[in-house]
Structure formats: C-alpha cells, structure tokens
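Much of the work behind modern protein science is quiet bookkeeping, done one molecule at a time. The protein below has been through that process, and both of its lines are reproduced in full.
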Amino acid sequence: MFLGDWLRRRALLTPDKVALLDAEAGMAPMTYRAWDEAAGRTANFLQSLGVAKGDRVAVLALNSLAYLDVWFACGKLGAIMQPLNYRLTIAELVALLADATPTVLLYGPEYAETTCGLRAVASSVRSWVAMSPAARADGADRCLAERDSCASAVDPVDLAWDDPWVICYTGGTTGTPKGAVLTHGNIAANAVNTVSSWGLTPDDVAILNAPMFHTGGMNVFTAPLVLAGGCSIVCKGTDLNQIYDLIERAGVTLYFSVPTVFIAMQQHPRWAQADFSKLKLVISGGAPCPRPVFDAFWERGIDFKTGYGLTEAGPNTFWLPAADVQRKPGA
C-alpha cells in the first residue's frame, strides 16, 4: 500500500477494472486508472489553490464521482477533507467551518444558495469551488472543471500513519457535532480488517447511497473495496426503486444502510418478487434494527446483520457470523 495514495497502487494492479459506476449518469463506468487520474488532476487543481499538507478542504455536496475524487485527492496531498452534513442549518455549518477552518470549500449545485449564507462568516475559506460549471453561486468562484487542464501525476508527499485524512463529524450522545479525526492509519486499518474479516473480493459490487459526509458512506464498504479492487455504484441519495433496480440488474453483492431504509424496502411492493440472488451481505447500522426486519430478510435467504462501529474507530468494529446473528439478533 502506498501511504496516502493507495488508489494509485490499485490503479497499477488492476488499471482496467471498473471501480465506480455512476447511477446518476446511466451507470457510466470509471476504471481504477481513470479514477486515479481524475483524483490526481483534482489534487493538482487543489494545490494550485494553495492547498498543502495539513490544510482542510470542505465539501458540501451530495454523493458523486467528483466527491470521491476530492477524497482521494486530499489523500495524495496530505490534505484533510472535511465532509459537511448538508442537512444542517446555516448556523450549524458555520460552527463546523469555524472548528476546522478549511481553506477551500467545494459545493454541489444543490447547495450553491446555501454557500451564500456562509461566505460572510467563513473567514478561513480562501477559495469557493463549484462542483458543477452551471451552478456557481458567485461569479468569482472557481470551478472544479478547471482540473481538466491539470496534470494527473502528483508529487509524492511525506506522510505518516498518524497524519489526518478526514475530519468526520459525529453527534455522539449529546447531538452536538464533534470532529472525529480519521488518520491514514485509521482508514487503512479499517479497510484491511474489513476485507479480511468480511471476505471482500474484486468481484464485489456495493451500492453507495449512504451520504459521504457520514463514515458509513466512506468507510463501511467504499474504502475497503478500493483495497479489494471491487466496485461501488455511486448514488446521490436513497431511492427505493433505484435500490431494487441496482440489486436486480447491476450484480450488487453488498449493501449498507440504516434500519429505516430496510423497513421501507421490506414494505415496498417489489419486495416479494425481487431477485436477491446475488446479494451476499447486507449490513444495518446507525440504530437498533427491529427483529421483524431481520426475519423478513432471512426468509429471503439474505445474510442480514447489524454492524457495530464508531465514527472515530473506522467505523467497522464488531460483527457476528450468520449463525450467531440468528441466535441473537441485534447483537
């Protein structure tokens, strides 16, 4: 593994393997080589904005391939990504920006207007970057599309395992977001342990519709699948019909979500006739899952279980083999 740049390592090993499928663009594929090059161009673009090792880069956006590019671009530079929860109020976002003091903030088209309420008070932000050329909130904003003219090769940065890669905010028990610093070592160890203990392979395909501002979106399956050489299907958000379409038609083997989504799936009209034959593992997290949901998935022959984890721990911490889960559901 190349510390800080394991996407490049994966691109060297399996350059033509499909790494990502864009569910919002007709399932357009991106290979590991193409993803590594996109992340490299993104890194050089960020560097042109003055981003260096240790600088924070905030992202306020729905899931997208570009979001993933920024994440791994920060890894290449030794910068620290600060994914922002787009469900927060302006006042709450201002508090997070004051906490991490990012020098760059990238925003998706859905949140261009939101940035207008942040600019007067987010004094640390030197560059505002629109992730969509058509959605600049201000004429002076930069655009991520400028990266297209940047080189894809990135000069290596001296990094240690304890260097931060992501500041991921968690409400904990009080509901007040606290920044959990995930280091390169955190994310790498989580990936290694997940691949080895959950048996992930290059043939695995996961739906990524958990938000990227949450550790579940980044690290339950997405980062581990880079290590394994698998594929993630990138979705903007959670749409039940889209979930069913992907499971039945895109060879999905892995899925992580929260109990609310699984309850809705089990109550959906497509549940009874859906083809789940390729699903090998479904993980519920974030809250206790009702016993009837376990039973409904097990009756369909799906290895459904609850995972336990902490944002600051990676997050994949504990899980049980299928036999133990059925002996003690919810444990």
Notes: The chain has two domains: 38-183, 184-327.
